[in-house]
Give the backbone structure.
Amino acid sequence: MGQLTKVSSWGYEGEKLICTSFKIEVESVRKVLLAQEDSDNDEKITVADKGPKSFRLRTLDHAPDFDIEGTYCLSTLLQELTLHARRGERIAILQGALIAENPVDRTRRRIEQEFWQSLTRRMDQSLIKIVANDPKDYGDDPRPRIYVPHALTEQLAYYQNLANQYPGLRLEVLRLPPVSEHADMVRIRKTPGILALEMEKHDGILRGLQYIVPGGRFNEFYYWDSHFTAIGLLEAGRLDLVEDIVRQMIFQMKYYGCILNANRSYYLGRSQPPFLTDLVLRTYKRILDNDPNKARDFLKQGIFAAIKEYHQVWTSEPRLDPKTGLSRYRPTRYGIPPEVEPGHFDWVLEKFAAKHGMTVRQLDDAYNSGKIQDSEMDDFFLHDAAVRESGHDTSYRVEGQAADLATIDLACLLYKYEKDIEWAIQEVFGGTLDVPSDCGPTASRTPQYWNHKAASRQASVNKYCWNPEEGMYHDYNTAKQRQTQYESVTTFWALWSGIASEEQAKSLMQKALPKFEYQGGVVSTTRQPREPHGKGPPIRQRQWDFPFGWAPHQMMLWDGLQQYGYHDVAKRLAYRWLYLLTRIAVDYNGMITERYDVTSFELGTKEVVEYGNQGCDFRGVASEGFGWSNASYTYGLTIIGPELVNALKKGLRCEEALNTGCDDRLSLANQRTLLACWNSQYVDFDFTSYR
């Protein structure tokens, strides 16, 4: 046996590991490592495991053995071994630099070089076996299906040819009726499938445009997920992919009548929070640097689609409330959602089944086919569909009343549309834009039209949603004609959209922010009584409620704070979130998840909350993370700036990072304690002694 070198930190000894490589037999080392360290048998090495947290790495080339110590380095060792194994390598050269890689660098690198690629899709021959799969298909005959818009005969023929080429895939290709007939889609409820997306020809052959999926059980194009993920993709230089994402949104608006919740047949008629103009403008500004003519045309097509979406989806009935002039999440199609797990609604269906003298399954079939009518069920599932369209599925804030709520979030998003379109027409198109007749009225061609719309909406929001005593915005219930009392982080969307006055912004900072800020960022809702709208399902928590924080809320708040000049607060909140994500990645085998408990530095998935926490279910090494959480990490690093990035690499908590000057370089003295900080199995590790 060679000389033993002990590695326990990124300090002086860690440099030896960084400069070392190991020739090893992959599977044998991996098996021994898991047998020793993975005490709960989930093929991860985390702080929850009870192993010795010290592993002697033996090599095949008589080089010195190494003791790898601590949760973090043991987990990165497992990750690298798993990656070699997946490539089919029996013998591999293991790079010590990857085992001792700083967790901030490692997380960013894997997001940009691996996760984005794993989450990228095309609906063509290259990926058809992956994209057509739907883990949410609970029907009697689960199989890959593709629905093609009625007018796209060439796409229909393309997919029919694929079905013939791959008979083992059992791919079924179906033609949708014209968009005007989507209200009567009962016949396809039992045969769910993916909806075709944009394609273009390359050398005479159809090829699907790229898009991104969130990850986990969500293997399709989601509207607001794609927007936030695209922000991270822009930071990674993936302008090509973001351009395609926007084109996919334009395609959906044209052929499906709205930008869908996601491109599955059971989402027809249901959208998600609208972010098209924001993404179009972000992308336009990136294209403009290299190709002004292309940028102008791209912007024009995006604005046309946004104007059409604005008028035909969000500011017309049933979503528009004529009395307030505000809009609500109120999908045009609803029923018992087929995408939920079997038994998800049994708690409510049992009552109706007894009422109609049926079993739950019989009721499901009879109600969805229209054989029975029940206004109480209609009301329940209308609100349920509205909850899902709101993106906040689920939360006690919206449960049981979502279709009646003029939410502050939707009001802010539509205000942003109005201001974005006004800016584009005024600044890029010279004060007038010839809007196609199928997109909007002739008057919508001028910036004055959109300025008036924005001013009117701002007045309505101030009248119905602003609460001056509390210094924050609330949702407005259009049926009960009063504000709700639920406190939601979406109150800060007013900063992101610019709808708040300077005085309102100041009130939000002084009165509202302290209610939402926790050690890991901002929480979705404050602590409030549960089930305010009647008996709910037997779940103690909702995933969009306290104590959970989500990437979109963080990212929008960072942008909003900067827009109103609160740059230091934006950095503080971004740092809190980044520290939490890094802490979880360090302690839980490189994991990046859909949501986080921002009140703790522990993994917020110890008990199943609703649909589980996507991003947790992997073996050995994560390959996807989760779309918008990945994006929030790379975007957040740009918000905090180099000095605080350096502090994050040191493992400093927010309070220490902000109160201690951080050099641009890591000194050797600090390096000696870095891995000890991040590698500690104790969540409440005291960093103060390392200042």
Observations:
- The radius of gyration is 26 Å.
- Residues 548-690 form one domain.
- The longest strand covers residues 21-25.
- The CA atoms of residues 489 and 641 lie 25 Å apart.
